[in-house]
Amino acid sequence: MERPGTVLLYAAEDSPAIVRSRLEGIAAHHDVPLESLPIEAITAESIRLDLDSDQTRLRNTVAAVRPSLLVLDPFVRIQRIDENSAGEVAAVLAYLRGLQRALDVAVLVVHHARKNGASGGGGSPGHALRGSTDFHAWGDATLYMQRRGDGRGGGGDIVLTIEHRCAPAPEPIALRLDDRDQKAVHLVIAGGGAADSHASPVRPAAPAAANVETAVLAAIVAAHPVALTRAALRARLRLRNQRLGEILTALEAAGRIVRGDDGWQLAECESTDPGADSP
Questions:
Q1: Is the model's pTM score more than 0.85?
Q2: Which residue of 103, 125, 148, 152 is surrounded by the most CB atoms within 10 Å?
Q3: Domain 1-110 adopts which CATH fold?
Q4: How does pLDDT run across 68-89, given as a tens digit for each residue?
């Protein structure tokens, strides 16, 4: 259900002038005056969500502004914890989850992947995120943007992959950065429509192991609330037993599925309770 409202943005790596310039570009692309949009920006020099004092400051700000969406960009600049420590990461993410629930605000956190971009053997792109695996398990809906091809000098296509806690993922989407108008730089679907008449079509990457994981999750979603045994999944998806076991283990660790006496089922979705956990 759509719920238009105010956006509260904290862009930790950019000056207020740069933030305004980028927002003006987005608004110009959509032919909407920036002044007409309900966007508020936090201009504090720093936010450290591992500190009780800064948690209180942010909570008070959100309570005063009452935004529909809080954007924190990027995670590495809003705390000084050890990102590889599951306990430290979990504490910050738990604070954000509590903020979301208490103040009925969607929370969007920008986070980076490891420099090598590896996903630990071809699983979900969430496995390539920096630091603790808590990041992958925390998100309700996650969008991954990866540059394919020669990334030097801005080359190569951009592939958008989408994951949702309680639904199968769509096919990856190939994007291109349209910078012909420097005042309205924006992303477009590569090779799609009149806006791309000057672009060479960019096809999404061929189905990879991440899509196999998606297929397993989709099968379990389709069967819900009936559990599927490992044998049933193998027969339906024609996967090797070892590979299927690896995928089931990864999905269970991410909190997406659970194993019961009758087989594998979709984990209880927070989003099934409209008032509980829907960012």
A1: no
A2: 125
A3: Rossmann fold (3.40.50)
A4: 999 999 999 999 999 999 899 9
